[in-house]
Design brief:
With about 450 residues, this protein is of the alpha+beta class. It folds into two domains: about 180 residues, FAD/NAD(P)-binding domain; about 180 residues, D-Amino Acid Oxidase, Chain A, domain 2 (2-Layer Sandwich). It is built from ten helices and 22 strands. The strands form four sheets. Strands 5, 6, 7, 14, 15, 16, 17, 18, 19 and 20 form a ten-stranded mixed beta sheet that branches. Strands 9-2-1-13-22-21 form a six-stranded mixed beta sheet, sandwiched between helices. It has a three-stranded antiparallel beta sheet with strand order 3-8-4. Helix 1 packs parallel to helix 5, helix 1 crosses helix 9 and helix 2 packs across helix 9. The chain is globular, with a radius of gyration of 21 Å. It starts with 9 loop residues before the first strand and ends in a 22-residue tail after the last helix. The model has no long low-confidence stretch (mean pLDDT about 95). The structure holds flavin-adenine dinucleotide. Flavin-adenine dinucleotide binds next to helix 1, strand 3, strand 14 and strand 20.
């Protein structure tokens, strides 16, 4: 490992995730050098959300900016041999006309944003995804560009860091937490670690669910909370044996039941031989305060993996069996299943850009895997040119008024966003139900 530096042009905190590693890659592509990357875990991360994501990417983003970062990321992964363009379905149940309308709306929107989504019949959906009970749906959206990051986004993060280190422009320090972002007169001046202080006029925080901890220290609050996301595995699924593929069937989303299904490919591949079912809790989403995330030494699995019980998901699981009966036929793999922690924000958008409170402090928070490389490009462009390629208002950390970052508002709005990750279909400008009437005439 390199000698610990006393200064750097930029310090990336949280280098080991897909976001930090992508930022390092894109900064170097734009000519930056003298970059230091820190991570409190291994590199690539073995405790962050990137270490256990399902790793799929749909192009059905709800706004132009996200459509750009997703499509950029898909191409980026593919250009490195890390993407299987297996396609993906989103279905409307027979009794869910609102979802059907939403699929049609998404197809129009997708065309406007440059995706190739189309509407297909139940029979066509069944032909693409044989695990489907065809009589359960009235139609489906088909996204031919949806796909899976292979073998894992965690591997991509590790490769990006290795390449950046080999270029001589990045020094990477695993097991080195940033203890404190040091600020003087409203400007960042460096990062405190237990190995010493690194002076730097630019610091990027890409620390995922831990974001509020460091941001709060310097009075630049992040309206973000970690959320438990149940991910369950079922198997062994022998049909996948001998396929030699990382994923055999297309991706499948049943947003009306707030859930998704995918196979994990040939048993010989990473985590293969199973069917995976993910769910977003719609009634009582389990938000977690960043301060309550377990320390690595006390977590049973990992700080971002919490225990899961079947009763937490039972109603939705039973509905999922109607749609994809295989989930009821295979054995539940309790040992592999868990509640993963991911970030939700108070308006559902990522938190990117320079802190309005602290000059030189940049955020790249609440970013999905499907947008990781795209956001890496956006941050690098923004830091280099002063502006990214597209209007970033939708994700700009500066979009919040100070009162919108108060704890009670953040918690109530994050809970609403968490309930609606998949369902019901909401208009992007639908008003919030909570934390209203703060300012009345
Ligand atoms: C179960 C599950 C399934 C998912 N499936 C998908 C999917 O299919 N598609 C998709 O697009 N997204 C998916 N996601 C979301 C996705 O995993 C995350 O949005 C993404 O991994 C975030 O990446 P990141 O780099 O921002 O954060 P992380 O991967 O969490 O990395 C943050 C890093 O910061 C480090 N860090 C934290 N604090 C400090 C500190 N003080 N000093 C130094 N380092 C620090 C951590 O150690 C960690 O390595 C899923 C999430 C979960 C939980």
């Amino acid at each position: 490992m390199a000698e610990f530096p006393k200064q750097a042009k930029v310090v990336i905190v949280g280098l080991g995730g897909i976001v930090g590693s992508s930022i390092a890659h894109h900064l170097i592509e734009l000519g930056w050098d003298d970059i230091v990357g820190l991570d409190k875990s291994a590199i690539p991360t073995d405790i962050g959300s990137t270490s256990h994501a399902s790793d799929f990417c749909y192009t059905t983003g709800a706004d132009k900016f996200t459509a750009y970062t997703t499509q950029y990321s898909q191409q980026f992964f593919e250009s490195r041999g890390n993407y299987v363009r297996c396609g993906g379905l989103e279905v409307a149940r027979v009794d869910d006309d609102a979802r059907m309308l939403e699929l049609k709306r998404k197809i129009g929107q997708g065309k406007a944003f440059g995706s190739r989504v189309s509407l297909i019949s139940p029979a066509e959906a069944k032909a693409k995804f044989p695990l489907l009970a065809e009589d359960q749906i009235q139609g489906a959206l088909w996204d031919p560009d949806a796909g899976l990051v292979v073998p894992r986004s965690q591997k991509v993060a590790g490769d990006l860091v290795d390449e950046a280190v080999a270029s001589g422009k990045l020094k990477a320090f695993p097991n080195t937490p940033a203890l404190k972002i040091v600020v003087d007169a409203g400007r960042v001046i460096g990062v405190e670690t237990r190995r010493g202080f690194i002076a730097s006029e630019k610091v990027v925080l890409s620390v995922g669910i831990w974001g509020p901890l460091l941001a709060d220290q310097v009075g630049s609050k992040l309206p973000l909370m970690p959320l438990e996301h149940p991910l369950l595995f079922f198997g062994p699924y022998d049909e996948l044996t001998g396929s030699g593929q990382e994923i055999v069937y297309p991706l499948f989303r049943d947003q009306g039941n707030s859930s998704y299904v995918r196979d994990t490919g040939d048993p010989k591949t990473t985590e293969g031989g199973r069917v995976e079912w993910g769910y977003y809790e719609t009634e009582h989403p389990r938000l977690v305060h960043a301060r309550d995330i377990a320390a690595p030494e006390t977590a049973r699995m990992s700080p971002s993996m919490r225990d899961l019980t079947l009763d937490q998901v039972m109603d939705a699981y039973e509905k999922a069996i109607e749609m994809t009966p295989i989930l009821g036929e295979l054995g539940w793999e309790e040992r592999h299943s868990f509640n993963g922690l991911l970030s939700v924000t108070s308006d559902g958008g990522s938190l990117i850009g320079e802190s309005p409170e602290v000059a030189g402090l940049w955020f790249a928070e609440a970013v999905w895997i499907k947008d990781g490389p795209g956001v890496g490009k956006v941050v690098a462009d923004w830091m280099t040119e002063g502006t990214p390629a597209l209007d970033p208002h939708r994700v700009d950390i500066a979009r919040f008024y100070p009162h919108q970052k108060q704890d009670d508002i953040v918690e109530s709005r994050c809970a609403e966003i968490a309930q609606k990750v998949y369902t019901p279909a909401v208009h992007p400008r639908e008003p919030f139900a909570t934390s209203r009437e703060r300012f009345v005439s």
